[in-house]
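Below: protein 1.
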Amino acid sequence: MLLAVSEGAGISLLLADRTATLRFSGVVYRRFTEPEPVGMLAVAYREPPALAARWFLDLAREMAHMPSRS
């Protein structure tokens, strides 16, 4: 994703925490202005979910109940 951004062929959204560790030549990070956008995410998987999908779903459920970090 960041390669496409650095070549002028794309944009990307990142978690703010990741911008501190992901450095890429030609890429500049900007925060959204207030009010920051919010949205919902969805996950699609086959039934029954594979082991990796079950782990991901467990983690997603756990993170959904965590307070947001500002």
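Below: protein 2.
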Amino acid sequence: MHFILKRTGLALITVILVSLLSFLMFSILPGDPVSYILGTEATPEQTAALREELGLDLSIPRRYINWMGNFLSGKNLNSIRFHGSPVNEMIMERLPVSITIALLALLFILLISVPASLLPAGPGGGLPDRLLNSLTAVGISIPGFFLALIFTWVFGITLRLFIPGVYVDYRENFVGFIASLCFPALAIAVPNAAILTKFLRSAILRELESDYVRTARSKGASYSRVLYCHALRNALVTSVTVFGMIIADVFSGSIVIEQVFNIPGIGRLLIASIMSRDYLLIQSLTLYIAWTVVIANLLADITIQVIDPRIRLERSILY
């Protein structure tokens, strides 16, 4: 429990530091949202009045304190790019779309990587091993956006399994909504599934060569029992950390994929806010991504302790 509380405290400090750094970074970048709103023909009086209205005339520390106070209190911050629309409402409207893509991608990752990792190893690295290693190498090498373009060309234009650029709103047709997100989720899943397969299979093969496996086999334990009850459990200890990083990448890394498939999620909203220097919206989305990464790593640490009790014992001795 002490370890979990300590990790939670470190996670909160990390999020605060990320919010501070992102605020400072976007505050010193060239470009002014006032110029974006009023254009180049605005008078100095109009510019000064709008800067005062938006709070841009204040010092950077004061602006950060005001922004964090409004964010933590749940007060609606108005977007600059989207004509004063509340930032929280805009994020909550698009959040179900990005979360659904991420969950579908994680499901595809597990459905691909776990069965592939459990394939029996051939003697001396046979044809199945070499084929699997080649496929994982290709999957790791292909960028997600390029895979999205391939899916659009092959499955959308050629095979016509979906209509490229068409998004179905979940409030209108939930089944069509899930169907329209399958290929974007698969484009995110394939490279990450290749990474997880590489790590998990290597860990399983390493465990199968351990002394305790040979002892269990000599006592009459079947290969499947040794694989699922012993080797897989120990291999998951090292692979959970990788999966935690993959979760963070999936939840925060669909920006380009949403652009390719024309999906109105968090990623497209972030790109639009960056292009228009919508600082309030950018900082709120950055905090969302930071929370996702921190929570994914925190859950990975907790899961590792649940899987391997020896780590809990070491933590209790250490702390």
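The chain has two domains: 31-75, 87-318.
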